[in-house]
Amino acid sequence: MAAIRVSSLTLLASTSASASAASSVFTKLQFGPSWGISLTAIPLCSRRTKRMAHSIARATLGLTQPKQIEASKISIAAKEIDLVEWKGDILAVGVTEKDMAKDENSKFKNSTLQKLDTQLGGFLSEASTEEDFTGKAGQSTVLRLPGLGSKRVGLVGLGSAVNSTTAYRSLGEAVAAAAKSALASNIAITLASPEGLSAETKLSTASAIATGAVLGAFEDNRFMSESKKPSLKSVDILGLGTGPEIEKKLKYAEDVCAGIILGKELVNAPANVLTPAVLAEEAKRIASTYNDVLSATILDVEQCKELKMGSYLAVAAASANPPHFIHLCYKPLGGAVKTKLALVGKGLTFDSGGYNIKTGPGCLIELMKFDMGGSAAVLGAAKAIGQIKPAGVEVHFIVAACENMISGTGMRPGDIVTASNGKTIEVNNTDAEGRLTLADALVYACNQGVEKIVDLATLTGACIVALGPSIAGVFTPSDDLASEVLAASEVSGEKLWRMPMEESYWESMKSGVADMVNTGGRQGGAITAALFLKQFVDEKVQWLHIDLAGPVWNDKKKTATGFGVSTLVEWVLKNSS
Known about the structure:
Elements: H1 17-21, E1 42-43, E2 50-51, E3 69-70, E4 75-79, E5 88-96, H2 111-119, H3 123-130, E6 140-143, E7 150-159, H4 165-182, E8 186-191, H5 199-217, E9 234-238, H6 244-268, H7 276-289, E10 294-299, H8 301-306, H9 310-316, E11 324-330, E12 339-351, H10 373-388, E13 393-404, E14 416-418, E15 424-426, H11 434-446, E16 452-457, H12 461-467, E17 472-475, H13 479-492, E18 496-498, E19 516-517, H14 525-534, E20 542-547, E21 553-554, E22 559-560, H15 565-574
Parallel strand pairs: 4-9, 5-7, 5-8, 8-9, 12-13, 12-16, 15-19, 16-20, 17-18
Antiparallel strand pairs: 1-4, 2-3, 6-7, 10-11, 11-13, 14-15, 17-20, 21-22
C-alpha cells in the first residue's frame, strides 16, 4: 500500500489428489451445507469442524502455529412466539427513539414494550428512565428482572426511524456482545415495531440481524495461548415471520457469514504464518471443498514469466517467499452462462515498502499484514459463491500473491518494468507496489473473456485521508457498473463512495523514459492510482476499482472487518440468472 505519509504447478481442484488430500493450510472453519432455519433451531454448522493453520513442511518464523479450535455451533431460528412466553437467557428488543415515547404516567406507548413492562411490574419503564435510555443508536441496556420466561431482558437503540441493513446488523452484533458478557447460551431478538415493515423488508431485516449476531459472536483467538470457549448456542429471531422464504434468506446470510469470517481470518493472520504459498493453499482448499463448481489454477514464477508478468514479478523479486498467482474459476452446475465476471484482489501478504521502506509514525508497517485485504475479500466471496451456487454466471477469482521486501535481488527505485500487456513502467516509488501486481492481474483477467471486472485493494493512504476509516472509495469510468456495485453495497450495508476519475491528473504519471511512472504526487493519490490501473484494462471490459485501505481494519477493536465480501457476493448474484 502506498504510504500515508519446482516445476510449474497448475491444478484443477476437481481432479488434483494433492488438493483433495491436503489438510487446510490456513483455516478449517467450514460451515455445513445447511443452516436449516425453521420453527425449531437447527445448527448453523451441520458437523463439528476446526479452524486451524497451515501445514507447510517447515517451521514458520517465530515457530507460530495457529491453534486448532473447534468451531462454535450456533443455531438460528425464525419463530412466532409470545415474547412473554419465550424461555432463554436474553430477550432483546430493538427500539427506535419513537418506540421509547411515554405517556403522562411515564409508561410506554409502544404496545410491545407496554406488554413487557406490564409483565415486569413497570420496572422496564422505570429502569429506562433512570438509565436515560432513549433508543439512540449505540445505546443498550440489559436488565435481570423476574416475570418473564427469559432470565434477562435487553433494549438496544436503533436511533431515529430506521430501515437500514447497517442498523439491524448492529442490533445483532450488540446482542451477541451482551451474550458474551453474560455468558448467555440462548438469545432472542425482536423489534418493538415490526408491524410497519413490508414482507420483503422483514426478510432483509431478519437476514441482517442474523448476520450481526453470527459475526458479533465470532472471535478470532487462534493465536492466543488461552481463550474462552464461545457460550452462544442459539439465536431466535421473533416476530418477522416464518416459512420457506425467511429460511432461504437466513441460509444466504449463513453462506455470506462463512465468507466474511474467512476474510477476517486471512487478514488477521500475521505475515510469518500467511505467506503467498499459504494463501494459495487456502485458495486450493476452497476449490477442493466446492469442486462441483470451482476449479483452481496456481501459477508459479516460471509460468508467470511465460505470461510476461514483469510488473508483478518485479515486486516479488526481493522476497525469500516465492510468489503464487491464484486463479479460481466458478462455473454453474448447469444451464447457459449469460455473464462472465472477474473479481481481482490485491494479495500483498506483507509490504515493507521495499527500498522506499515505510518509516516513521503513521506508516503502519506493523499492520501491513492487511495489505492482502483485497485478496481476502475475493477468496471470502469465492467460498460464499461456492456454497450459494448461483446460476447463469461464470466468475473468475484472481490474486497475484507475493511480498514486497528488501534484498539485493529486489526492485529498485528507477527500475523500468514491463507488464504483460507490453506497457513499461518506471518505478519511482517501490512502496506503490500493489498497483504493479494488479497491473498483470487485470491483464490476465481481461484475457479470460470476462465482461466486467471489480478489483479490490488496500491501495492508498490517500483514500483513507479522503474518506476516513469506514468508507471505501470506488473508481470507474462506467456509470452502469458503478450503479450495480453501489446498489449491492446498499443491500450489504457496506459503505462505498464513488470518486472522480480525473483524466487531467494523468499528467503527473508520465515518465520521460517509459510509458508511465507508478506514482504521482501526494495530491489526488487515490485518483492517480486508479488511473494507473485503468491502463491495464481492455477498453471493451467494464471495470471498477475499490480502494478499501480504510475499512479493511477496525483500529478500535484491532481486528479485520471482512469488508468487501458481502458486497461482492450480492453483486455476483445480481448478475446471475
